[in-house]
Amino acid sequence: MRSGRHFLQIPGPTNTPERILRAMHRSVIDHRGPEFAELGLGLLRDLKPVFQTEGRVVIYPASGSGAWEAALVNVLQPGDQVLMYETGQFSTLWKNMATKLGYDPIFIAGDWRRGVDANLIADALAKDTDHKIKAVCVVHNDTATGITSDIGAVRAAIDGAAHPALMMVDTISSLGSIDFKTDAWGVDVVVAGSQKGLMLPPGLSFNAISEKAWAACQAGGDRRSYWDWRDMMTPNDAGYFPYTPATTLLYGLREALDMLAGEGLEQVFARHERHASATRAAVESWGFEILALNPDERSNSLTAVLMPDGQGGDALRAEILDGFDMSLGTGLNKVADKIFRIGHLGDFNDLMLMGTLSGVEMGMIRAGVPHQSGGAQSALKYLADHRI
Amino acid sequence: MRSGRHFLQIPGPTNTPERILRAMHRSVIDHRGPEFAELGLGLLRDLKPVFQTEGRVVIYPASGSGAWEAALVNVLQPGDQVLMYETGQFSTLWKNMATKLGYDPIFIAGDWRRGVDANLIADALAKDTDHKIKAVCVVHNDTATGITSDIGAVRAAIDGAAHPALMMVDTISSLGSIDFKTDAWGVDVVVAGSQKGLMLPPGLSFNAISEKAWAACQAGGDRRSYWDWRDMMTPNDAGYFPYTPATTLLYGLREALDMLAGEGLEQVFARHERHASATRAAVESWGFEILALNPDERSNSLTAVLMPDGQGGDALRAEILDGFDMSLGTGLNKVADKIFRIGHLGDFNDLMLMGTLSGVEMGMIRAGVPHQSGGAQSALKYLADHRI
Amino acid sequence: MRSGRHFLQIPGPTNTPERILRAMHRSVIDHRGPEFAELGLGLLRDLKPVFQTEGRVVIYPASGSGAWEAALVNVLQPGDQVLMYETGQFSTLWKNMATKLGYDPIFIAGDWRRGVDANLIADALAKDTDHKIKAVCVVHNDTATGITSDIGAVRAAIDGAAHPALMMVDTISSLGSIDFKTDAWGVDVVVAGSQKGLMLPPGLSFNAISEKAWAACQAGGDRRSYWDWRDMMTPNDAGYFPYTPATTLLYGLREALDMLAGEGLEQVFARHERHASATRAAVESWGFEILALNPDERSNSLTAVLMPDGQGGDALRAEILDGFDMSLGTGLNKVADKIFRIGHLGDFNDLMLMGTLSGVEMGMIRAGVPHQSGGAQSALKYLADHRI
Amino acid sequence: MRSGRHFLQIPGPTNTPERILRAMHRSVIDHRGPEFAELGLGLLRDLKPVFQTEGRVVIYPASGSGAWEAALVNVLQPGDQVLMYETGQFSTLWKNMATKLGYDPIFIAGDWRRGVDANLIADALAKDTDHKIKAVCVVHNDTATGITSDIGAVRAAIDGAAHPALMMVDTISSLGSIDFKTDAWGVDVVVAGSQKGLMLPPGLSFNAISEKAWAACQAGGDRRSYWDWRDMMTPNDAGYFPYTPATTLLYGLREALDMLAGEGLEQVFARHERHASATRAAVESWGFEILALNPDERSNSLTAVLMPDGQGGDALRAEILDGFDMSLGTGLNKVADKIFRIGHLGDFNDLMLMGTLSGVEMGMIRAGVPHQSGGAQSALKYLADHRI
């Protein structure tokens, strides 16, 4: 029995807004009936501005991992080379998936502290003179490291190499939180999920699809059924889906899209930037290091904080969960126990952030983690001084 | 603006009980934290009695179609023959999926009015002396035709042929409604979904897995990632999942399992049988024909009703939706417009059934569909005379 | 563990629509803040058309009984005579309350099978030459007997007698179900509650107040505080209340008013009339007698059905609750065990009514209550033949 | 469109826990049926330990003001003297109500900065040699001033004077937050509401009743109906109520009682004390004065903070609401605009408190209210240093 609200400050799933939970509390309707068609058409239409695309967006009743798989199997053929880039655990997992699915990933190694170096992409593409590489896959915001890569630079690298590879980007922890321009950046396949900036519970994921990717899908792709974009198109045009959709999550999506439109995407991005800046001010005050070395690459949706030598991140997280009922993100794989991650994305505001950062600081005190006090206070000052 | 509750009498998704919607109206928790582990372990444990198995059950954040795909890709290799059986649209769709995924289905043709003839299975297996057929796939209860096949007889046919093929069964519209004995019938892979007898919204699906299927999965199977049973096992043992689960649907599943256990599976099956019998009494009184020719194969979860010559099922359905705010199932593919389907499964009771059948009869009157009046009255008598 | 939805067919509280429960599932806001003011002003404005008045409407966080008390104490002084009329248990209870509160009710006796005879009111007022009678109090629709009285005739009687008494009317089970014209009928104080035609859970009640009643309140009335209309007016003008309002019920009221406006009051009344007519057709078919002798006085929100000699209504109700999970209204006081009451008001539709009437007929069969079968079938025909 | 959760930090209604909103999201049941009886009996039984009484507790579908009125009218007769004590706006309002209802309050004046001086009670009672004073009425925790009075001392004063007056105490903002011992302190009538420590939305209120008060009620009391304890007793014994109860709020009450029992009352009180102490540490750090002069009388459920000279509390509150989406309590009556009030009661935890206090400090910065920075930081230290 804990009193008060749990603070779910992992970098997603995020705190589900009351409005969205309420919208989902509704009886299921006939997914083949006229009322559903209206819902479906509206969703497919209103998702586009969130992706900043005029192209196709498809919705899967699946986790984000499903949308990764969909991106690959719709355009690749077994043995196809894909150029992927290590920015953290999630780019690693996507690479592992590509391997399991029978593709041939070229994985540009990273140190988990820097984003995509577009020059290395350019180099790799330049070497690929016979265009064996069919796709370049990067993670816009790696949730494991809090590193945001420059997608426009990746676009420029591909264009500079005059390489025909498709460009695929995972925006699972950036869409609806950090500016992402599908069309302007020429992204061919976008991978997104419901449970981060879209503020929904997990269970839906998305692909946005360029004309080039759609052509590739029609011309080829792998053996596929559940993920097949082609099966989506005709029913989607009428507001329906080829198999039973996750209706209650779609009710929530309707509400989420209305909320994002109501606040305005520009305002949403500015809000995330402001909370991230305040968080970084706190981390600096504590005397801790942010995992992302390059200030331009520090994520606006989460902050990964390096523990001092000899201090385990998981012990701190456990103390904070036990003492203050807040969940923080753990360090994964190469940074296991070396970092903890603070999610500051989704349906969030200044006072929730202050509760969050205060909880981190109180946890450090209780856990005996050496730090300079006053981090929360620094964030407070930042927020008070920076009106939005 | 319609007054009162919509009657969702398609054969699934079914009317979601208030208890389940309420259980789902809860903030998402950390899917890597200790509270989640307790939830996950409980679900994985308590699903087993619903499947009547001691074996493994896996949960996908996906529609039922995903669990079809999972069943195939975990054990089959490209080009593998699978023996499938046409009992309606859903067996047809599963066959189409097998083709798309690169397997080689042998499809025993049916007329959509009869269930699986186990002799034909036996014959096909007997001919397959070099055991090219790797799996026999049947649909326990074809949702498009309301035909329930004898799965024990299929088991006997396989055993009689001493054939090593795996036996896979789709129970999407029977699990939790019609007795299904995974272990007793030696089913190797069960395919199930959340939105029928389990009373949940759509968005979850399931495989139950025998030791034999598990061995096949480990020894081979296709290229796969999202659906890979192997990735599930280690996290599942601790109550977790390999990727983000659909947490709110899992809350609903917890409630659904408690409800089924509270009522008792035997009682649940008896209730469905009773409502189906009352529905069949109504159909006979109206002078209509049930699509399923064999009384033993008439489904207890839905009833497909043949329209009289010259009368379209879809016009009747539209009249009923417009006039009485009830959704019925349409005729699909070979029986398009020739039938309508009444769902009487899930969270249902006598008075809901009487509202449903009265709505059908009133719709016939309004639509000018010739019939003998008194079908609802016959069902009323049946229900009053047959205590459960 | 009962499967399916309970049928709550008492004549109120009524089946709460999902929309209203959802609207109430919202965090409480500051009842002194600007967001609340907007809510409050909208409610106080939009209640008026439901009461068909241009006058004041006040909202109490209280049951309907509270609004009875409020009506009396705001305008009466101890010892004041009030002319009241026995149409059933609820008029009796209001009379008892008047006595307890120190007023002097003259109670015109009734036999619980007829509504108000306006001639008797006229006679009583004619005799009251020195105008000791300060108020005439009648129940528009007595929930205990299913009798609807002619309020226009009462108005005419008062006017005919040129008597200055205030006219007070209880519309608890008629407002939002049966046409009630506060201003056109010159009603000075209306008493209403949330849990019937307004479709809300219980917990709110209302007074509509004419100018004449408001003048009486300001000039006199009894000692009072919680119920004092005077304390309401200034805060109400700004959208607030003098003490903490029942915020979540007000959220529900917002939704209810939107639902009634969306359907249209005329349509709402026609729907209730249609369902009542179908119910009466069923009762006649069963060979049962309706308690209300005068067809013009038969309620459109509930039907009180007389049991045959030697048959107890409560045994039948218990059988129906036990066997079919439906709650019906009991017989109260003078008609205890002699009747049962079917509520057919609020958020209701044809199929819910057919479930209801089928449940009554099945209950009669099970309980061994002699009846002619086919009542539900008669209602079915009525509904099919009478489009709205 | 505000992002994130509103902080409702008025001293009630408090932040409604998700569990309670969820419990209330349930269809209404028959308030005369067997399922209701079980609910009612459980509530009436389990309220007693919360009041720390073995006596009667009654539940009203009404605001707290209704329970004030009920306390008076059940035992007093017109003209009866009641000794009341000014500790803030709510004691003043209760006094005003007593006057309106025709009783004769003797109001011991206070300066709104100190609690009840039991000596003054003793003096007044000593002078009342012919026992005209029928009741002593005090507010345990005056919500307008954040002052908690010593109820045991009042008991001692009455006993010391050997005076037969009943002792009535308002615990609206203390019950379930600050230790209150109905029986041990010999309180005859307790007045409580749902929307503070009980964590429910407003709409229910309570009286706890001693044997002495019950005897007074039966022997006398005023004209009354809605509030009459006598009408409650027989139905309550069976789990029912004399008129329609506010069923959905009762569902919420069931959950609230389970939550309080789950946490344990001692733990609940300690939690409130700890949050109040941290808040006071913040106020001191800011260099502000707490309205309550006597440290022993500083409330554990709210803190009233004096503004510096020349600074208006309402401008600060408006800035905080606008800039940080938090509602704080206003200054009422004698302290209008001179104070603001921070509610830290109900379903609350450390991180919510840190968000709250950070919001106050950020508001001061934005509003240009002179203060010493670091108040939130002081609270943080307090919380980190004081494990519960």
Automatic annotation (TrEMBL), chains A, B, C, D:
Stated EC number for the protein is: 2.6.1.45
GO terms, molecular function: alanine-glyoxylate transaminase activity; L-serine-glyoxylate transaminase activity; L-serine-pyruvate transaminase activity
Q: Which residues bind substrate?
A: R341
Q: Which cofactors does this protein require?
A: pyridoxal 5'-phosphate
Give one Pfam family, short name only.
Aminotran_5
Q: Which family does it belong to?
A: Belongs to the class-V pyridoxal-phosphate-dependent aminotransferase family.
Question: Which protein is depicted?
Answer: Serine--glyoxylate aminotransferase SgaA
From which source organism is this entry? Planktomarina temperata RCA23
